[in-house]
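Notebook entry, structure prediction.
Reason for the run: the old model in the group folder had no record of what sequence produced it. Starting over properly, with the input documented here first.
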Amino acid sequence: MAAPTIVVAEDDSAIRDLLAHHLAREGFSVVPVLDGHAALRRARHAADLVILDIGLPGVDGFDVVRTLRREERPVPIVMLTARNDEIDRVVGFELGADDYIGKPFSPREVVARVRAVLRRAGRILDAAPASLTFGRLEIDEAAREARVDGTDVRLKPREFALLLELAINAGVALSRERVLERVWGFDFDGDERTVDVHVRRLRAKIEEDAGLPPIVQTIHGYGYKFVRP
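New structure, fully documented this time:
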């Protein structure tokens, strides 16, 4: 099976090259483009997924999404932007984007989200999701298991999703709002205390019961960060 083709539309050469390097290393075929016009051309003819910066020259990212969806082209789209306003995320999703990643980002996060969006779109990938290993802790996305010294610690589905979200962003502080959006969904109607409750449960199973050193650091007034055990 041919490798999925990912169009990376980003005018910042450093970010574009970083994304292209990590995606290619994971086995994807990467087509880098510099502006919105090129993104449209490539998305129409040679793309399994488009990573799309909002602030593109020529035609901005919102207009690219709007045009592709008006033409009824089903190519999955992941928005990439430095803007943090909620309205940008809402507009992107309403126009038809499939996911949204804010800068700064972890390249590992981008790869994981690309894989997730492709799977949701029905694209079968040759390689199974890779396990993440941090010392004695292994996080196996395919099996949906977290293992310490080879033993499954039996996380509930939401606890596992929370651990995976934190781990693929290792070393990056994530706000409670962002964790809610990624783990519970954009339309979740609860509040940020839900995150705190699940973090406590996760710590109890991973740190207290399984005996790992602290892996989830609290960023007071903001959120949480995964630290390598």
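Summary: The chain has two domains: 5-120, 131-226.
The old model has been moved to the deprecated folder.
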